Amino acid sequence: MKGEFTIGHVRSIPIKIHWTLILFLPVLAFILSSQLENVRELPLVGLDPTPLLTPEGRIYAGIVVAIGLFVSVLLHELGHAVVAMAEGVEVQQITLWILGGLAMLKGITKDPKAEAKIALAGPAVSLALGAIPLTVFAFVDPGPFITFPALYLGYLNVTLAVFNMLPAFPLDGGRVLRALLGFRMSFAKATNVASTVGKGMAVLMGLGGLFGGSFLLIFVALFVYMAASQEAKGVELFDALERVAVRQIMDTEVPAVRPDAHVDDLVAMMLQTQATGFPVVADDTVLGVVTLEDIQSVPEAERSLTRIEDVMTTDVDTVTPAERASNAMRKMMDEDLGRLLVVENGRLAGVLTRRSLMQAFEILQILPQRDPDLERPMPRGTETSGPFRW
């Protein structure tokens, strides 16, 4: 997600905040402070905003509850993350944004039990965060400036847990639904069913927001609908690419440069081929990659003297010809790459592009699920070709 920055780490997990949250927090604090009177209608013992109905009290309550709510969301996402790591799923980061939080997992677990545990962990944390203050402050009253924010946050956390358990994929409840369906059908089919239910719930949310005059609910409904559609499409994509190997769709016509070539030679090569990146190869062995970005800092007067090996990048993501195409696509998405070098025993075998993967997906959609011809390598001359850009 673009427009985010890291504020810290928890158990080596990067915690990031999106700029939309920075803008939304003051708005949320204002909304909460201006609606304190409505809190009286909530069925909670001791939740009385009267002592805070002053300009200073409203500001205090709005700020504390708004910040506390997003801290609660962070703990909710950490609940997902901790259980995911316990199930062997890598957690890339946690991002807080205008609609809450996202625990970004590397890969998708197809184990129904593991997915159910991961999905239920977040609402369980929210319920605990709600139950503790609602229980404690029902008997102890340290004063309105502590009791009111604590009780209000307790109520909001319970509401958050209940909302997240709606079977609206990709909410936690939708993921639990997919896990339950996964015991009786394939992962792809379970995803399609859960996605359809999620889109139906999103339509109901949208109608509720439309007739209730809630722009936020309409916004949430749009997000749920689009996310449910993308999840189903993503699973369909990976399910199809699982059927083919990288060697069947990679491009074997790959221009390369030697490490002892000079930067001015590379510039001429880029102009001729309209490519902005090349693998660096010596004796058929891949040494690294050199891109336009790598040579931009080299002064023009030094380009004829600077070797490629002095500016190239040696830390390069690669795949092997035998790997499933789905693994390659996942690596591209995780690392935000457009292409991957295909390397076998240290030697360059080809290049795989995101475009060629998407073209393969379109073709695979019209083939039978089990086609023996898919195990054969593609004939020479049918590989995807084009400028080598990074």
- Report the end-to-end length measured between terminal Cα atoms: 20 Å
Major sheet: order of its strands? 1-2-3-4
Low-confidence stretches: 378-390
Order of helices and strands: EEHHEEHHHHHHEEHEHEEH
What structural category arises from helix and sheet content? alpha/beta
Average residue pLDDT: 87
Q: Which percent range describes the beta-strand content?
A: 5-15%
User: Share of helix among residues?
Assistant: 40-55%
Total number of β-strand segments?
A: 9
Morphology call? elongated
Number of helices: 11
**What can be said about the biggest beta sheet?**
4 strands, mixed
List the domain count as a whole number: 3
Radius of gyration: 26 Å
Q: What this model shows, in words?
A:
The protein has 390 residues and is of the alpha/beta class. The protein has 11 helices and 9 strands. It has 3 domains: 1-165, no CATH class; 168-241, no CATH class; 246-375, CBS-domain, CATH 3.10.580.10. It is elongated and about 80 Å long. The protein starts with a strand and ends in a 26-residue tail after the last helix. It is 50% helix and 14% strand. The protein has helices at residues 19-34, 55-86, 112-136, 144-164, 172-182, 187-212, 215-241, 263-273, 292-295, 325-335, 354-364, and strands at residues 4-10, 13-18, 90-97, 100-106, 277-282, 285-291, 318-319, 339-344, 347-353. Strands 1-2-3-4 form a 4-stranded mixed beta sheet. A 3-stranded mixed beta sheet has the order 7-8-9. Strands 5-6 form a two-stranded antiparallel sheet. Helix 3 runs antiparallel to helix 5.
List the SSEs and their pairings.
Layout: E1 4-10, E2 13-18, H1 19-34, H2 55-86, E3 90-97, E4 100-106, H3 112-136, H4 144-164, H5 172-182, H6 187-212, H7 215-241, H8 263-273, E5 277-282, E6 285-291, H9 292-295, E7 318-319, H10 325-335, E8 339-344, E9 347-353, H11 354-364
Parallel strand pairs: 2-3, 7-8
Antiparallel strand pairs: 1-2, 3-4, 5-6, 8-9
Helix pairs in contact: 1-2, 2-3, 2-4, 3-4, 3-5, 5-6, 6-7, 7-10
